[in-house]
Design goal:
alpha+beta; DNA-binding
Length: 195
DNA sequence: GTCGAGATTATCT
DNA sequence: GATAATCTCGACC
């Protein structure tokens, strides 16, 4: 598996669609992911170079990169590219296929099954992924990744909610499996107001 | 049903 | 002190 994850994010991302992420008794089949290149990608956390937060992304592939954002949300990524090169894939959404009862318990605001892991932060909550799971080995750690037997069909579009204007968001690096109810609706812009 | 603003804190400047 | 790879809730149609 590590050989497959050693390539650049845009090549690895299609392989993750249909993959299963398992944490304890809860398993999620990924239906939506987003590729982030390293220091050359303005939307990436690695754009400004190595820091405490993104150190894991510079590490070896096949590990879990988590980050905290908007003061209350945790998101999970899969690190790819060899050690020393920052690159990762954000797990945006998925379908809970095991442990739905437990996932529902964690996601008390969810009303329909499709909402359980519809969005990066929701997916992390449903799986019980926390900030301190960063750096976990996806083959032997608490968080496991199982690649699918065959590649799923997918569509591509612009990434959502990334920082930067115009051009930085023009790459079609958001991939999803068409027709899946758990795929989050596209949000073209994020209105940001500061008080 | 859709749309828009507020929440809340680790990390970086 | 400002920012952020988001979610939720309340207002309105």
């Amino acid at each position: 598996m590590l050989e497959l994850l050693r390539r650049q994010a845009t090549e690895v991302a299609p392989l993750l669609l249909g993959a299963v992420v398992r944490v304890g008794d809860v398993a999620v089949r990924l239906t939506e992911v987003e590729a982030y290149m390293g220091e050359g990608d303005p939307g990436s956390h690695a754009f400004r170079g190595l820091g405490k937060r993104n150190a894991v992304m510079y590490g070896p592939p096949g590990h879990l990169y988590t980050y905290f954002t908007y003061g209350m949300h945790t998101c999970a990524n899969v690190v790819c590219m060899p050690e020393g090169v920052a690159s990762g894939i954000l797990l945006r959404a998925g379908e809970v296929i095991e442990g739905a009862d437990l996932a529902r318990e964690r996601r008390t605001t969810s009303r329909k099954p499709a909402d359980l892991a519809q969005g990066p932060a929701r997916l992390a909550v449903a799986l019980g992924i926390r900030l301190d799971d960063a750096g976990d080995n996806l083959e032997s750690g608490r968080v496991r990744l199982e690649l699918p037997q065959s590649r799923a069909p997918f569509s591509a579009g612009p990434r959502t909610g990334v920082a930067g204007e115009g051009g930085s968001n023009s790459y079609p690096w958001r991939l999803w499996i068409p027709g899946e109810p758990s795929v989050s609706p596209y949000r073209p812009a994020v209105k940001r107001k500061r008080s």
